[in-house]
Specification:
Blueprint lengths: L1 H18 L2 E19 L5 E6 L12 E13 L5 E6 L2 E6 L10 E9 L2 H10 L1 E10 L4 E17 L7 H20 L1
Antiparallel strand pairs: 1-8, 2-7, 3-6, 3-8, 4-5, 4-7
Helix pairs in contact: 1-3
This protein binds calcium ion (2 copies).
């Protein structure tokens, strides 16, 4: 009887792994804007809407976005200013003066700003996030060179290659039954 219980447990384990035919497929999504040196001043924020519904293989309500990062590239050619970057209403970056002078304009990059869970949930649900870059102090300006939103999307798919055929399952069952019979005889 003990032996029989072991065999039953083995069959249940094999069946459950044979039937777990769903697979998660990961895809990288990237939405990039070249902002053409958009000039940000106190009266002129830069806005851009990242939208994975527009030309991407993203199924709203079904696919999940599990990770995402914002990349920003700015340039400045002098003056003292501070700025803030929002995704929707969430402050993702607040920083001090960008370096660079009239003689030596400089490019400053902020790469891999990781989105927190609340932003991931929103992005996952809507496929959309609105970027706003505003100057908070200073009376000059700076430029947005580019901005990118990179995301990892997960989709549950049934993988036909992993679906066992009824015959092979039946053979497996017969094999195990045979094994059990052999053990009982021994
Ligand atoms: Ca400036
Ligand atoms: Ca500056």
């Amino acid at each position: 009887m003990k032996q029989f219980a072991k065999i039953v447990a083995a069959v249940v384990l094999l069946s459950s792994s044979a039937f777990s035919n769903a697979a998660i497929v990961k895809t990288d999504l990237v939405d990039t804007t070249t902002a053409n040196m958009f000039k940000v001043s106190q009266s002129n924020p830069y806005t851009f809407t990242f939208d994975f519904n527009d030309g991407y293989d993203f199924i709203k309500g079904s696919d999940k976005i599990t990770d995402a990062w914002l990349d920003l590239v700015f340039s400045d050619n002098g003056g003292s200013e501070t700025f803030a970057v929002k995704l929707n209403t969430f402050d993702i970056l607040k920083t001090k003066n960008l370096s660079g002078s009239e003689k030596v304009p400089e490019i400053t990059s902020f790469l891999g700003l990781k989105l927190d869970q609340s932003l991931l949930t929103t992005l996952s649900a809507d496929g959309i996030l609105k970027l706003t870059v505003s100057m908070t102090t200073g009376d000059g300006s700076f430029n947005v060179v580019s901005s990118s939103l990179r995301a990892v999307m997960e989709r549950d798919v049934a993988d036909p290659a992993e679906v066992p055929e009824p015959m092979s399952l039946a053979l497996l069952g017969l094999g195990l039954a045979g094994l059990a019979a052999a053990r009982r005889k021994a």
